[in-house]
Amino acid sequence: MPETPSTRPSAQPKSFFLSPDLHSYILNHGGGPDEVQRDLIAATQALGTVARMQIAPEQGVFMEWLARVMGARRAIEVGTFTGYSALCLARGLGPQGRLLCLDVNEDWTHVARTYWRKAGVADRIALRLGPAATTLATLPQEPGFDLGFIDADKENGRLYYEEVLARLRPGGVLILDNVLWGGKVVERRQHPGDTSLQAICELNDFAAADERVQPAFLPLGDGLLLLRKR
Question: Model-level pTM?
Answer without folding.
Answer: 0.94
